[in-house]
Design a protein that fits this description.
It catalyses: fluoride(in) = fluoride(out). Fluoride channel required for the rapid expulsion of cytoplasmic fluoride. One of its GO terms (cellular component) is plasma membrane. This is Fluoride ion transporter CrcB. The chain is an all-alpha fold and about 375 residues long. It contains 13 helices and 2 strands. A two-stranded antiparallel ribbon has the order 1-2. The longest helix is centred in the middle third of the chain and has 36 residues.
């Protein structure tokens, strides 16, 4: 009994260590891409989450493609790494809640640029075009990058980095023939060709798994020390944010684990995670950008410390609790009608929440730029 309990604890420690490391690195990746895309006269709106969603969905597609039954690169003891890369890393790189805030800000002319320069759309009807522009661009870029990632996995990585292996197929015909008295004289069991990773790729995957396992505690300790020592811009983005992100990512994982099986055509767990994160991020945006008074430009969170902590909750907890990569991947596996329902309900409910919380405050008191 003690040996079983000990092995179970070792397995859990390994999983959570790998998962937490992937989550922290995913948060770093999202913030790094966001800052990299923040420059003047960019083709895509500065600091848009579309770049992060694009990268996350492509990596998700690669991992999903390599995990198909025909290839099964993450089978056996590599299953923890697969969950860490898909749910942990990709889920933390992408963000559904940030996308919903973008949709609202563009459709209501409340982006940072609009507030700073006091610019608005020609009339409110153009908000519909802005709404559709953000939704269509975000969803189709994410969907196409997921499909491209799957093709990259099956047509490139498997072709150059795998070996061919024949394994027997267990089906009903084979079972019936083997149960008959003359099965020795009947045909041999069917064989199928699989393409597991070659020795080099298998070694690299195991090395990645080991590194993520080893880095978990040092990364957490480093972030805690940096949060305590430095009280500057980095606290909101690169130190406190990833710590909050761990809890958001784990909450999303357990919501998906226990709630998604309740429906085969609507992933309830991911839906709850995305909507709850959108609600929290709307409130955080209200606190960091909402005016204290209608005729004042001072935000509710007017101290830099309060602003940085609130921003860290938004980028870390909400960014990791919500996900586009899993959202797109789940919809990809659904029947077409169920996919449309999943997309429509998620975006409709998310947008309504932002309008009720952030929109009602913005149209009564107004928004301003944050102090951090």
């Amino acid at each position: 009994m003690f040996q079983i309990s000990s092995s179970l604890w070792k397995s859990r420690i390994h999983f959570f260590s790998v998962y937490i490391s992937a989550t922290i690195l995913g948060t770093f990746t999202r913030e790094g891409i966001t800052q990299l895309s923040n420059y003047s006269y960019s083709y895509v709106a500065a600091s848009s989450v579309i770049w992060s969603n694009f990268v996350a969905c492509m990596i998700m597609g690669i991992c999903q493609g390599l995990n198909d039954k025909q290839y099964a690169w993450f089978s056996g003891d590599m299953s923890d790494l697969f969950v860490a890369l898909t749910t942990g890393y990709c889920g933390s790189v992408s963000s559904f809640s940030t996308m919903m805030i973008e949709i609202f800000e563009h459709s209501a002319s409340l982006t940072t640029s609009n507030i700073k320069n006091s610019t608005k759309l020609p009339n409110r009807a153009y908000g519909i075009m802005e709404f559709l522009s953000v939704v269509i661009l975000q969803l189709f870029v994410s969907m196409s990058s997921l499909i491209f990632g799957r093709k990259l996995a099956s047509d490139v990585l498997v072709y150059y980095c795998s070996t061919s292996k024949l394994i027997p197929v267990q089906d009903s015909d084979t079972d019936e023939s083997q149960s008959s008295p003359n099965h020795k004289f009947e045909s041999k069991p069917k064989m199928t060709e699989t393409f597991p990773p070659n020795k080099l790729m298998s070694g690299l995957l195991r090395l990645l798994d080991t590194l993520l396992y080893i880095l978990a505690i040092p990364l957490i300790a480093l972030l805690i020390v940096l949060v305590c020592v430095y009280n500057n811009y980095a606290r909101a983005r690169y130190t406190l944010g990833p710590l909050f992100g761990i809890f958001g990512s784990l909450l999303r994982f357990y919501l998906s684990l226990y709630a998604n099986p309740l429906s085969k055509t609507f992933p309830i767990g991911t839906f709850i995670a995305n909507i709850f994160a959108t609600l929290v991020l709307s409130i955080i945006t209200l606190v960091t950008h909402g005016k204290q008074h209608f005729h004042s430009a001072i935000p509710v969170a007017h101290s830099k410390t309060a602003c940085r902590v609130a921003t860290a909750l938004g980028t870390g907890f909400c960014g990791c609790l919500s996900t586009i990569s899993t959202f797109i991947n789940e919809a990809y596996k659904l029947p077409f009608r169920s996919m449309l329902v999943y997309y429509f309900v998620s975006i409709f409910v998310g947008y309504c929440i932002v309008v009720i919380t952030l929109g009602s405050y913005a149209w009564t008191r107004g928004l301003t730029n944050s102090v951090c």
